[in-house]
Design goal:
5-stranded antiparallel sheet; 9 helices; alpha+beta; two-stranded antiparallel sheet; 283 residues; globular; 9 strands
């Protein structure tokens, strides 16, 4: 992981900072998965289906983003495949755009990223997809046990503030336009508004019907954070403390390493976990 991080920083030195940060998460309700299940099965019973269908979708996403330039003409890119504790695979991707396609101001940001719930009467399909896949939470006072909670606050800073227009934020990300609107009910005890929307690209969300978070990397300060986040390494879920100075490093690794079924399938099929383009040897 350290070597990949160093290679990524070499690409920054050669190509410039990343312009777009994209995260794609598997949707276990994809028709290609559910149509192959037996009557008594759930998607979790078929990690081979989850893995192969997600990889197929991601390969198509790569073609759209990298070759067709859906988010702009790509100069270099890198991505890492990871796996959630419940087993769903997801990919983090960083894109460096060509000079003519770089996102330089709030107007450019709005042409690629949205953070509002579309009007049901104007864009019914997009409205359904955003409400289904791109709503954060519940967290905060609604659910203090949410995984995003730390010290009584949401680590992702939801709910966001209403904002009449997109503007440059004080940290690494812009403050996207989130206009005040009437809340929408999504259950018996919860309603949502634009403050809870995860930034997305409308075309990608509609086509792939899953959670695809798209963020603009607007500050030079975000470079090291983003690369370390992408290459942060594998999760560990247990720890033991023993008396004495002896430590069996091999046994500690075996005990602490967490591998879910989809990750095991991914490795058995020898699918790519990491990719940087161009390779450091070509720089």
């Amino acid at each position: 992981m350290t070597q990949h991080y160093e290679d990524g920083m070499a690409i920054v030195l050669n190509s410039g900072k990343p312009n777009t940060f994209l995260t794609m998460t598997c949707n276990p309700s994809w028709y290609e998965i559910t149509s192959e299940l037996l009557p008594f099965q759930t998607p979790q019973d078929r990690p081979d289906l989850l893995t192969r269908i997600f990889r197929s979708k991601f390969e198509q996403l790569k073609d759209d983003v990298i070759n067709r330039g859906v988010l702009g003409k790509v100069k270099s890119y890198m991505y890492v495949t990871e796996f959630q504790k419940r087993g769903l695979p997801h990919v983090h991707m960083l894109l460096v755009l060509e000079s003519n396609d770089k996102l330089r101001n709030p107007k450019d940001y709005d042409s690629v990223v949205r953070a509002e719930i579309p009007k049901l009467e104007c864009e019914p399909q997009l409205h359904e997809a955003v409400v289904k896949h791109m709503i954060h939470g519940p967290c905060g006072v609604l659910n203090r046990r949410s995984p995003c909670m730390k010290d009584g606050q949401c680590k992702k800073r939801y709910p966001k503030k209403f904002c009449d227009e997109t503007r440059q934020g004080t940290d690494s990300y812009p403050e996207y336009r989130r206009r005040f609107d009437e809340p929408i009910s999504i259950g018996r005890d919860r309603s949502i508004d634009n403050r809870w929307v995860v930034p997305y690209n409308p075309w990608l969300v509609l086509k792939y019907d899953c959670h695809i978070n798209v963020e603009v990397c607007s500050s030079i300060k975000s470079i090291k954070y983003l690369y370390k986040y992408v290459y942060k390494g594998l999760d560990r879920v247990s720890m033991e403390v023993h008396k004495g100075s002896y430590m069996d490093e091999v046994q500690q690794y075996v005990d602490a390493r967490w591998i879910c079924a989809p990750e095991a399938i991914w490795r058995i099929f020898r699918f790519t976990l990491y990719r940087l383009y161009p390779s450091v040897e070509r720089l």
